[in-house]
């Protein structure tokens, strides 16, 4: 085999090795693009959060609203009362995202 043929064979071998990396590199690139899209969505949410918070209505009719669902997704979700461990606290939970809100109830003792 001539030197030219051997060098050409080395080039073909290198190309096969590089070709074997295509699938792995494409998978890595797809993961990076998905991660980038996720970060971009979180960034957009963070940028919009002050404006959304300024328009948040804590109560609509008789229902308290979930602040997380509104600030993060601009969705109205009622909070459900779930009771509290003591008589001095009210607990509410969002059925959509699971966010919990605790409210201390101030009671006056009459003497």
Quick structural gist:
The protein is an alpha+beta fold and 111 residues long. It has 3 helices and 5 strands.
Helix run count: 3
Q: State the strand order across the main sheet.
A: 3-4-5
Poorly predicted regions: 106-111
What is the string of SSEs from the N terminus onward?
HHEEHEEE
Shape assignment: rod-shaped
Number of strands: 5
Largest β sheet strand count, sense and barrel closure: 3 strands, antiparallel
Query: Proportion of β residues?
Result: 15-25%
How many domains make up the 3D coordinates?
2
Average pLDDT works out at 88
- Structural class category: alpha+beta
N- to C-terminal separation?
A: 109 Å
Helix content: 40-55%
Q: How big is the Rg?
A: 29 Å
Tell me what you see in this structure.
With 111 residues, the protein is an alpha+beta fold. The chain folds into 2 domains: 1-55; 57-111, no CATH class. The protein is 52% helix and 16% strand. The protein is built from 3 helices and 5 strands. The strands form 2 sheets. Strands 3-4-5 form a 3-stranded antiparallel beta sheet, with no helix packed on it. A two-stranded antiparallel sheet has the order 1-2. It is rod-shaped and about 90 Å long. 5% of the residues are buried. Residues 106-111 have low confidence and may be disordered.
How is this fold's topology laid out?
Elements: H1 3-20, H2 22-54, E1 59-60, E2 63-64, H3 67-73, E3 79-81, E4 89-94, E5 100-104
Antiparallel strand pairs: 1-2, 3-4, 4-5
Question: What key attributes describe this structure?
Answer:
single chain, 52% helix, alpha+beta
């Amino acid at each position: 085999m001539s030197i030219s043929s051997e060098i050409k064979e080395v080039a073909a071998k290198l190309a096969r090795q590089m070709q074997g990396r295509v699938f792995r590199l494409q998978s890595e690139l797809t993961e990076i693009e998905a991660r980038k899209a996720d970060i971009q969505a979180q960034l957009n949410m963070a940028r919009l959060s002050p404006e959304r918070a300024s328009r948040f209505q804590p109560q609509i009719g008789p229902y308290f609203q979930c602040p997380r669902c509104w600030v993060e997704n601009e969705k109205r979700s009622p909070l459900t009362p779930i009771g509290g461990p003591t008589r001095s606290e009210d607990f509410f939970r969002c059925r959509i995202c699971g966010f919990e809100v605790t409210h201390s109830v101030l009671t006056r003792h009459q003497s």
